[in-house]
Amino acid sequence: MAEISIFQAGFCTHPACMVLKGAGFKSQCFPSSAYLISTKVGYFLWDTGYAEHFMDASHGIYRLYSMVTPVTFNPAQSLVLQLKSKGISAKDIQGIIVSHFHADHIAGLLDFSGTNIICSDQAWTSIKNLKGILALKKGHLPDLIPTDIEARLSFVEQLPSIALPNELRPFETGWDLTGGGEVLIVALPGHAIGHLGAFIATEQGWVLLASDAAWTKEAYISLRGPSELSFLIQNNRKEYYQTLNQLHQLHRQNQVTIMLTHQSESLS
Ligand SMILES: [Zn+2]
After folding, report:
1. CA 32 to ligand 1 centroid distance, Å
2. Which of 14, 31, 51, 202 has the fewest Cβ atoms surrounding its Cβ within 10 A?
């Protein structure tokens, strides 16, 4: 069985109604989480959260990103330092799974030199050549990408695809990361091209790391979407709601714990 440790690496602030329709204009904090997944074959990371590199990469036109989502980050919160305090160094990590390439999920990649990186081929293909305003529109800051990434990158589409256990329905197929059925990566389309989640088999039962498929629990519990404005930066509204509906069904079956990257206190 795998184990999951949660780390919060910085947060940004938004009006609550951006992430949940009708939730008002009060400013809310949205932590950026990263996860350490301990498996039989070693440690994996799920995303990295913010890092100081985010500030460095937000220059010129890219400053717009940090103006739209003001970020609070203390260097001591970087994932690499938090892991170090637990005696885990970058070389102990088998791979970093990138759920998608939004800056708040990948800002720490530069702290893990040489570590393998795993993402969807679709996600990488969609951003790898983007610069300037086109990159910004995809929530991408090109300077956050390690220059040697292509030598370290592998794609989930190359992993064995397996049928998921019945209790994970409506999800049907997943990519088996370790070959042991502990980490089953699934496509959660809509938020970003090639956006991924993963079912993790733990002693306490199945956990779904759902990344940015929703920004609040209320969204999938009561099928209450985000502001229409948010679809200026999200990829596909129709797919987003199909995925949200899948989370809703999964939640109703009450057999899987759903964890969102930016989960914070109730907004209702
Ligand atoms: Zn995102």
Report:
1. 10
2. 202
What pTM, to 2 d.p., does this model score?
A: 0.93
Structural domain contains residue 266: no
Contact 124, 192 (CB under 8 A): no
Structural domain containing residue 141:
3-259
The answer to whether residue 264 sits within a structural domain is no
Judge whether 268 lies within some domain: no
CA of 153 to the centre of ligand 1 (A): 20
Report the separation in Å between the CA atom of 51 and the middle of ligand 1, taken as the mean of its atom positions.
16
CB atoms within 5 A of ion ligand 1 belong to 102, 212
For ligand 1, the distance from its centroid to the CA atom of residue 262, given in whole angstroms, is 9
* Angle at CA of residue 261, ends 59 and 32, nearest 5°: 40
Instruction: Please state the domain count of the chain.
Output: 1
- Cα(100) to centroid of ligand 1, in Å? 7
Distances (CA, A) of 111 to 25, 54, 106: 35, 12, 10
CATH (domain of 219):
3.60.15.10
Residue 170: alpha-carbon gap to chain centroid:
21
Dist. CA 92 → ligand 1 center (Å): 27
Tens place of pLDDT per residue across the chain (268 aa): 999 999 999 888 777 766 677 777 677 778 899 999 999 999 999 999 999 999 899 888 888 888 887 888 888 899 999 999 999 999 999 999 999 999 999 999 999 999 999 999 999 999 999 999 999 888 999 999 999 999 999 999 999 999 999 999 999 999 999 999 999 999 999 999 999 999 999 999 999 999 999 999 999 999 988 888 888 888 999 999 999 999 999 999 989 999 999 986 444 3
> Could you tell me if residue 97 is inside a domain?
yes
